Amino acid sequence: IPAERALTVYVDKRELVTLMTLGAHPELLVLGYLRNQRLVQSVSDIDSITVDWEVGAAAVKTCSGIDQIEERTARRVVTTGCGQGTMFGDWLADLVPVSTPLTLDVATLDLALGRILALDTIYKLSGSVHGCALLRNEAEAPLLYHVEDVGRHNAVDSISGLMWLDEEIGADEIFYTTGRLTSEMVMKAAQLGVPFLVSRSGLTRMGLMLAERLGIARGLGGGALAR
Fold first, then answer.
1. 80 C-beta neighbours (distance < 10 Å), count
2. Mean pLDDT of the chain
3. Is the pTM for the entire model greater than 0.85?
């Protein structure tokens, strides 16, 4: 049975949010969360992230503060994320459509899915977590990152943090999730610049509409892919 922990995030000593997490990659989770909530624009905006599990807190110190943080976090939308996630502000306001000349070959997709399914994962053992992975859209479909957490949004946020640190831009990559493709998952894929979004589960109507609007190809279940 996976251990679920509460991690309260403080930004410059101001309480921001409490995340429920397995706790395997807390610093990456916090970094990716701040990125995907668009509260920081660059890794260089962060001076440090310090996690203390004795008190269940992550202290983020920024280099020069976050402009208008009160106003930017005042509007909250309760999402479909596991445990009811929260996103701040209007995510759709500044999203730029993903543009790529690449296509995803069915053989590459099958190989990518095979790599993920071959992993010895917590998801396989327990069924009570979600997993996300990022793979390169190349003939051998190399696996870049694989992260599991209580909710799929935590997993994608951790991968987002890794991408930021490694300066991965997402343009030639495939994003896989065990969870359904809701509007938030499509928006996060667009924020990461990933053109191919694949799930072993289903999708929502808004997720489909946003994928079409943002130029993201989405794949379901057995690997059918559409743009």
1. 17
2. 88
3. yes
